[in-house]
Design brief:
The complex is a heterodimer of chains A (about 475) and B (about 210).
Chain A: H1 6-12, E1 15-19, E2 22-26, E3 29-32, H2 38-46, E4 57-59, H3 77-93, E5 96-97, H4 108-114, E6 123-126, E7 140-143, H5 146-155, E8 157-160, E9 164-171, H6 180-191, E10 199-204, H7 206-209, H8 213-221, E11 230-233, H9 237-243, H10 252-262, E12 275-280, E13 287-289, E14 297-299, H11 313-326, E15 341-344, H12 352-362, E16 373-376, H13 381-389, H14 392-399, E17 402-403, E18 424-427, E19 442-445, H15 448-457
Parallel strand pairs in A: 3-4, 3-6, 4-5, 6-7, 9-10, 9-12, 10-11, 15-16, 15-18, 16-17, 18-19
Antiparallel strand pairs in A: 1-2, 2-8, 13-14
Helix pairs in contact in A: 2-5, 6-8, 12-14, 12-15
Chain B: E1 6-14, H1 21-24, H2 44-47, E2 79-82, H3 94-102, E3 106-109, H4 114-122, E4 126-129, H5 132-144, E5 149-153, E6 158-160, E7 166-168, H6 173-180, H7 185-190, H8 193-206
Parallel strand pairs in B: 1-2, 2-3, 3-4
Antiparallel strand pairs in B: 1-5, 5-6, 6-7
The chains are: A alpha/beta (about 475), B alpha/beta (about 210).
The complex binds iron/sulfur cluster.
């Protein structure tokens, strides 16, 4: 048989039928949240269509839930209606949901893997662009729109065209303090936010193999910010040992059978990618974004750009606009940027390992005086419980952080957590677009340890210079 | 989805280019959890003199008498005609939902924004591209004649004028098939439900841990 890439293996094993280059692809797992599902469920009701395979669905409210005391309910009426509508739809259609007050509730992309409902070899969809996260397990995971959510609910299939394949190989070993977040940002800095458009990315190479599952999820999560609809990592021992003993993962004989198949989920030795990009792991520095797009990024030893040095007029204009929005001067060393707020959370960096990383920096320290608010928002109720078992909550609280309930929180400011105009935030989330974290808010994307270090010093600082 | 075969309706002239999705349905209505009920807020900012918010009683609102859809002669219109680049802006489907909910079945324009164009077909609306001069002639004719209506024969791909003159238009064969048969994407995939079941049988035999 012809050598295949991982993407081709996953795609081809799910083809139901083909019509002139459009494929009907079977979907194994459908993750559902409150924002993009209501109209899809309404469509089913209007047309009297049942859910094709309710077992494939795991639902959870995350975008609109408060991260403060939940016994008071949700105060924003539109948020409340969205969350209650999800409850009602799950009841009506008989779907598994972790409601707001269940301790398994959390960000949809955190709980899927945590519950073992994300498995290698699966096709996974969710009405959310960061669904690419689940590709870390050797799965084909893609974000879809509301009408596609309805399509998958009704038919268990999605109409897709084949993507091209892009190999992102990260050779060598990472330096101390360098995380998957830095790899992701360095990659986007190199290829741009449209660099992966039309491609499915597979991350390969020694640096990737050395990442934990949490790190691989962070990386695949950000594949979408590089323009790729899907990101993925081949299955290995790290993948398999993460999956074992999770509530929804296979057990006993079925697990053994599954493992045999999962072991085949990698690109064949001679497989051809449409394109390959190579990064050198030991050259990657801690990354900080300075602008309003994830590609506006530099290493911690860098400076904000000088628009005068840019000859392309439209690029010059976008640098000027971004600097103006961010309230930054050209040629300003990144380490001189002072911060008002800190956000550690989001589906990019809110897993236990992320919290450990940040706590490790914060241990015995206090946040700087200029930090008005520092939030630590665990990705799920179970992550929160685990962190509390390890005493991480105390480290955060003693440092001056607020320790919150799980949800999307200040990643997109759909609930009450947000920046005020002009406020500057070191954030572990994935998007630094204008207004993303609140109208007029200024976001710098960084890794959890870099956010923690910035909170202690009040400005960005090279994590590698700390003990 | 309602099948679209041959359709006759009064035409409303919206004499603007680059009508964007925010103008079609302003963003305060996107928070809704429904895909129906947007009709009363179609072109909200143009149609009413006050600022609209979800849940308002529209009978209490002040209509803009200048706006074309508020003029008595166009009140019953179900076909819309506009200038180039209709539907630019967001990819969200609220814009075609609002147009459909209001009661429009077809839109005629010299060009459409891509995503909006394909979202129309998904929601039972026929967007027809005609040369700018033809559109211009139609605008003139509509303004001259009260109750001006057109017949759209989708099967034979004609817009039929009151004079019985016919204007041919192009439409993708697959999309035409879906509209004529009232098939949305889901209805279309449902036609293959036996194939999906057969796939499942084989698939779960091989991957039994997923059952
Ligand atoms: S954490 Fe942010 S990016 Fe992730 S699902 Fe929530 S809103 Fe989207």
């Amino acid at each position: 048989m012809q050598a295949q890439t991982l993407y081709e293996k996953l795609f081809e094993s799910h083809i139901v039928r083909e019509d002139a280059g459009t494929y009907l692809i079977y979907i194994d797992r459908h993750l559902v949240h409150e924002v993009t599902s209501p109209q899809a469920f309404e469509g089913l009701r209007i047309n009297h269509r049942p859910v094709w395979r309710s077992k494939s669905i795991l639902a959870v409210p995350d975008h609109n839930v408060p991260t403060t005391d939940r016994s008071l309910g949700i105060s924003d009426p539109t948020s409340k209606i969205q969350v209650e509508t999800l409850d009602e739809n799950c009841r009506h259609f008989g779907l598994t949901q972790f409601p707001m007050n269940d301790n398994r509730q959390g960000i949809v992309h955190v709980i899927g893997p945590e519950q073992g409902s994300t498995l290698p070899g699966m096709t996974i969809v969710c009405g959310d662009s960061h669904t690419s996260t689940h590709g870390a397990f050797g799965a084909l995971a893609i974000g879809i729109g509301t009408s596609e959510v309805e399509h998958v609910l009704a038919t268990q299939c999605l109409m897709l065209k084949k993507l091209k394949t892009l190999e992102v190989r990260v050779d060598g070993t990472l330096n101390r303090g360098i995380t998957a977040k830095d790899i992701a940002l360095a990659l986007i800095g190199k290829i741009g936010t449209a660099g992966g458009t039309g491609y499915a990315i597979e991350f390969t190479g020694e640096s990737i193999r050395s990442l934990s599952m949490e790190g691989r999820m962070t990386l695949c999560n950000m594949a979408i910010e590089a323009g790729a609809r899907a990101g993925m990592v081949a299955v290995d021992d790290v993948t398999i040992s993460y999956i074992e003993n999770r509530p929804f993962s296979p057990k006993g004989e079925e697990l053994e059978k599954a493992k045999v198949y999962w072991r085949t989920l990698h690109s064949d030795k001679d497989a051809q990618f449409d394109k390959t990009v190579i990064l050198n792991g030991n050259e990657i520095l801690p990354q900080v974004t300075w602008g309003t797009s994830p590609e506006m990024v530099v290493g911690i030893d860098g400076m904000t750009p000088d628009p005068q040095k840019e000859n392309d007029l439209s690029k010059r204009k976008s640098i000027e606009d971004a600097l103006a929005y961010m309230g930054l001067e050209p040629n300003l060393p990144i380490s001189q940027i002072h911060i008002d707020k800190i956000f550690i959370g989001s589906c990019t960096n809110s897993r236990i390992e992320d919290l450990r990383e940040a706590a490790n920096v914060l241990k015995g320290k206090k946040i700087a005086k200029n930090i008005m608010l520092a939030l630590a928002v665990p990705g799920s109720g179970l992550v929160k419980i685990q962190a509390e078992k390890e005493g991480l909550d105390k480290i955060f609280i003693e440092a001056g952080f607020e320790w919150r309930e799980p949800g999307c929180s200040m990643c997109l400011a759909m609930n009450a957590d947000r920046l005020n105009p002009g406020e500057r935030c070191a954030s572990t989330s994935n998007r630094n677009f204008e207004g993303r974290q609140g109208q007029g808010g200024r976001t710098h994307l960084v890794s959890p340890s870099m956010a923690a270090a910035a909170s202690v010093h009040g400005h960005f600082i090279d994590i590698r210079t700390l003990n | 989805m309602k099948p679209f075969i041959t359709y006759t309706g009064i035409v409303a002239p919206l004499d603007r280019a680059n009508v964007d999705t925010d103008a079609i349905i302003p963003k305060q209505f996107l928070k809704s959890i429904k895909k129906t009920g947007f009709g009363p807020h179609l072109f909200d900012e143009w149609r009413y003199l006050d600022h609209g918010e979800p849940g308002m009683d529209i009978t209490q609102r002040k209509k803009n008498p200048e706006f074309v859809l508020n003029q008595p002669r166009f009140e019953k219109a179900t076909i819309l005609i506009a200038r180039e680049n209709f539907g630019c802006g967001s990819s969200r489907e609220h814009a075609p939902w609002a147009i459909e909910d209001y009661g429009f079945r077809a839109i005629l324009a010299p060009s459409f924004a891509d995503i909006f164009f394909s979202n129309c077909f998904k929601n039972g609306i026929l967007p027809i591209i005609l040369p700018a001069e033809t559109i211009d002639d139609l605008f003139k004719a509509i303004n001259k004649q009260e109750g001006y209506s057109l017949t759209i024969d989708l099967e034979n791909q004609f817009v039929i004028l009151p004079s019985d003159n016919k204007i041919n238009f192009q439409v993708d064969a697959f999309r035409k098939h879906c509209l004529v048969n009232g098939l949305d994407d889901i209805g279309l995939t449902m036609q293959h439900s036996e194939t999906i079941k057969a796939f499942e049988k084989n698939y779960y035999q091989k991957n039994s841990w997923l059952l």
